[in-house]
Amino acid sequence: MSSRTVIRGGLVITASDEIHADVLIEDGRVAALAATGTPAAESFTAERVIDATGKYVIPGGVDGHTHMEMPFGGTYAADTFETGTRAAAWGGTTTIVDFAIQNVGHSLREGLDAWHAKAEGNCAIDYGFHMIVSDVNQETLKEMDLLVEEGVTSFKQFMAYPGVFYSDDGQILRAMQRAADNGGLIMMHAENGIAIDVLVEQALARGETDPRFHGEVRKALLEAEATHRAIRLAQVAGAPLYVVHVSATEAVAELTRARDEGLNVFGETCPQYLFLSTDNLAEPDFEGAKYVCSTPLRPREHQAALWRGLRTNDLQVVSTDHCPFCFSGQKELGRGDFSKIPNGMPGVENRMDLLHQAVVDGHIGRRRWIEIACASPARMFGLYPKKGTIAPGADADIVVYDPHAEQVVSAETHHMNVDYSAYEGRRVTGRVETVLSRGEPVLTEREYTGHKGHGAYVPRSTCQYLS
Questions:
Q1: How many angstroms separate the CA atoms of 462 and 432, rounded?
Q2: 228-238 confidence digits (pLDDT tens)
Q3: Count of CB atoms situated within 10 Å of the CB of 164
């Protein structure tokens, strides 16, 4: 049985176009678009008709950086694939790319299989995987080739967290050389973890234990230094590079310089760096622990460089790095020692709304909103045009968005499985109303109509963003 849906009367916004158009969906895919009121649009018929008059019709968000059920610091991220993907849908995101983890001494395959087991049958929206490479050896390098062939086409390495995920420059270079050969994309957590550990030890010895010192020891210069080093290693290897969660003016400058040199170097930032700052880390009574993530929040003056980077396309993507830990019982593990606070913040539900607020505030335009939240991550991670746009043949991952509705962000009303909101009390203009995933309604006029198991695993092609 064929199923058809028509979305009528909305302003369809993609990364490249804005048009008042009706959208015909057939069997989970976009079948056609036609300007509203034209004979072609009037000819669209369907069992389900969604009235989007006065609303935006946008592609579902693609969040290329989430950590559901991630083990860290003796605990686990509080969102499961079930709760996290449901919350993502409430926020207008219809695809996530999560990180499978290779443990030292184990194979990539073992890590990937473990993440498939966590996600399969539990997701409300579609999902893919990156692979965290923690142990570079000859077997790992061979496995990278196999993973690329089966649609896991990006590999994350860490210059931070010695003794956990850390890779030295030689291991990074080997992995980059392999990626240059097999078409994979190396994603880099760029912080000088060896130097940071010295500063952590010294701060604790001075009795500097509060959450704000997390930001003070993870210096912007050490993010910039590592970013520079990663860029040059990638240049030596002849490999593209994607730097995750860029937070600092100096790191943006390194990316900008490399891109001006014509290198295939890309960067993402996250809403927390655009909207929050070290003022949050310094909140009294240990409240600052809620805002501990790495790279850390920076002084507010860094935000201008991040917005400028997004406008000039020196930063291409806004992802969340969603890695939530409850304040009670999880963040509290670091009372008396900031280095024991689990690193990560909730955000998968807030990204699309916060970026729409950036449109309202004049930081970016509407099409750039869709570009950095939908189209560019889809291109970067080999999902385009199946995801990230509204065009014939694309998956019908579509959001009806009310640009005029006002809301107050709060843990009392969010759907993430975490006991606080990083944006508590923040007023934003714009709200998701209806969400379709492959044509199926996951949210219907602010009522959840999805279910776990609808979300399908999506193998990815190699990066489509390369010049």
A1: 31
A2: 999 999 999 99
A3: 14
